[in-house]
Amino acid sequence: MSGVRSSRIRSLKCRECGREYELEPLHVCDFCFGPLEVTYNYEEITRSLTKEKIRNGPKSLWRYKELLPIETEDPLDLGTGFTPLIRSTNLAKELGLKELYLKNDTVNPTFSFKDRVVSVALTKTREFGYTTVACASTGNLGNSVAAHAAKAGFESYIFIPADLERGKILTSAIYGPNLIGVEGSYDDVNRLCSEIANEYDWAFVNINIRPYYAEGSKTLAFETAEQLGWVAPDHVVIPVASGSLLTKIHKGFEELHQIRFIPDSKTRISGAQATGCAPVATAFANHTFTIRPVKPNTIAKSIAIGNPADGYYALKAVTETGGFVESVTDEELVEGIKLLARTEGIFSETAGGVTIGVLKKLVESGKIASDEVIVAYITGIGLKTVEAVENALEGLQVIKPSVADFNDKILRRNPSLGQ
Amino acid sequence: MSGVRSSRIRSLKCRECGREYELEPLHVCDFCFGPLEVTYNYEEITRSLTKEKIRNGPKSLWRYKELLPIETEDPLDLGTGFTPLIRSTNLAKELGLKELYLKNDTVNPTFSFKDRVVSVALTKTREFGYTTVACASTGNLGNSVAAHAAKAGFESYIFIPADLERGKILTSAIYGPNLIGVEGSYDDVNRLCSEIANEYDWAFVNINIRPYYAEGSKTLAFETAEQLGWVAPDHVVIPVASGSLLTKIHKGFEELHQIRFIPDSKTRISGAQATGCAPVATAFANHTFTIRPVKPNTIAKSIAIGNPADGYYALKAVTETGGFVESVTDEELVEGIKLLARTEGIFSETAGGVTIGVLKKLVESGKIASDEVIVAYITGIGLKTVEAVENALEGLQVIKPSVADFNDKILRRNPSLGQ
């Protein structure tokens, strides 16, 4: 299996030693074991790509195809991306912010931002000619790989921690993949998948396809800038699991600057973690780029990666741009979910609760200024992690089907409302 | 409270006696008790509205604002609508169809098509000056009203059957409404709400705001036609609860023809019900327009309306266009959910399972021809009704984190895959 060399897409390049490789299913440098990243010929893209062309493109992440490592004219499209950027009214007021936006990535085909990376990964997988795809997942990725594999006709193997939230297990199972629960943490699952990837010639979306896969996250930056009228925000808050999402959103803004679509890329990038799994936040607090792996202990399972593959690069992006990495407790993240729902009508999973909790903390500590243009990334749906907010059900009041009972049990408690 | 008379929006008109009313919060004719419907000045709309204008509009249902009964320039927008129309590849093949599309309305802000009607209803509610909104709901509507009320700052009362799926209760509760579980069926809830609506001056989205509310469903027809390149499909399959959705999709295609956006509106309209609550399908089978109310007994609770308010008009639309109303059992609807997921990567709630089940049945009985351009409407997310497909969890296989265990427990059972 061999990649096609395109003049728009240049190479795979080692982030450490700079050695370049052909566009093949590789993810680490043969020489220094550094991670490989896709590079582009930006001069050529600048010549051929216009904002007009994007505006007339599909209403999905494929409107930015020329900035993605894809050759085919017919990418795998379940309708992922170009999700709403919602101007926050109530939450902004509650936090004392002037201009806050929420990027609502819950409304993707499998209800998380993972559809972005998987759309790109499985399109590339098809280009490479594989027939079997696989992934290690904390849930959302598995959902997305299973759904896209169903559509594309791939055999799929989804590896997840056996103790995952039922909602996230079912939402993989429903698409009919080979679904394998591994007794252990996500890091155990990941290690096992690396070993299996060495034995079988499959496309592991977050192992040998990872350099292509990760590029899909850039589209969150592209959409944000386009939806703001081709301007980058002042500050973004992004949940950190492996760190890949954060580094790629950073790369996205930089690329838009490079092709002269936005005036500058001075966006400050901040990361959000759960205190029960905060290796990147801990390193940031200790002013070190050395990340010490931890054993996760948080309900925010979708971002509970104790040994984050791109943690170092995430820290670099944060530090270079003047951002922060902060963490919140499980109690604070639950509050974050509820705050977002009752102010903006968006129901997020635990990771979004972390993002909102950290946003609040950064504002309260003065690290985010009230006049910054801020974007918070809500990366997945609350319905997959209902366990976290089940006590909201206590709000249900039961009555008999009569006006008398309604007046008596409900309105009597709140007499100002019977107006 | 009084409506504003617009030259584009003409009146509320009784569907029975034709008497016209000002644009106020009314829903039945004072004289004959017929339902009121919004009418427009199509000549004026034809003069002012262009496809170009729509194409450059927002990426939401508000791109069709000029065909909706709204005056404000600043409608309530959580990003509803303009959802993907997915060309079915695998399901079409499995059913022997040439050109099948799936309108994926699971990716709305609260994950069902109800966000369409609620966006319109609550925008109108704000125009009327109400501060309290309410609804009777089988779940999805309550979710949407609660979320939109949170965003708009309305006090909200959500009335639901107390025995609803937990997923649908939680997804209302999370947005912080007054959430009232009524001991009884949806029809009991609905009756209670009508009584309460008589006592308090609130905006009940599906009672006194209903004529405006219902118009939101037309956008499903508008989007379908636009996404097909301004052509109406030959045949559509739509789940039937109150019947409002079906009649409004029909109206939508007719309006597009009226303003000369599509060459004709010969779309055949077919309805889908669950056998356990199929009053419209039964009337259709019996060649009568008299619908006998039934007591619902099906897991498809979101469409389990035993006494459908618009059932008569739905039947009329079906009959006039040469469509059908068919029903499927709970077992068949569960198969429909699974079939859709494993072929197209879309995870639908029970109503979508009904739609797919009925589509299959209509094809197999020769009522849908294999060369028709068909659109099936998938109106809500599977994550709210996981109970229906919980046995899919049986697909999970658990192993220890070792390659040996993987080879032994998983691959040994399927030796062709270790290639």
TrEMBL record, chains A, B:
EC class (word): lyase
Q: What is this protein called?
A: Threonine synthase
Q: Which domain of life is it from?
A: Bacteria
Alphabetical UniProt keywords: Lyase, Pyridoxal phosphate
Q: Which cofactors are required for activity?
A: pyridoxal 5'-phosphate
Q: Which residues form the Tryptophan synthase beta chain-like PALP domain?
A: 78-380
Picking any one GO biological process from the record gives: L-threonine catabolic process
- Output the Gene Ontology terms for molecular function: L-serine ammonia-lyase activity; threonine deaminase activity; threonine synthase activity
Q: Which InterPro entries match?
A: NinF (IPR008712), Ser/Thr_Dehydratase (IPR050147), Thr_synthase-like (IPR004450), TrpB-like_PALP (IPR001926), TrpB-like_PALP_sf (IPR036052)
Q: One matching Pfam family, short form? A: NinF
PANTHER family membership? L-THREONINE DEHYDRATASE CATABOLIC TDCB, THREONINE DEHYDRATASE, MITOCHONDRIAL-RELATED
UniProt keyword Transcription, yes or no:
no
**EC numbers for this chain:** 4.2.3.1
UniProt modified residues of type N6-(pyridoxal phosphate)lysine: K114
* Sequence similarity: Belongs to the threonine synthase family.
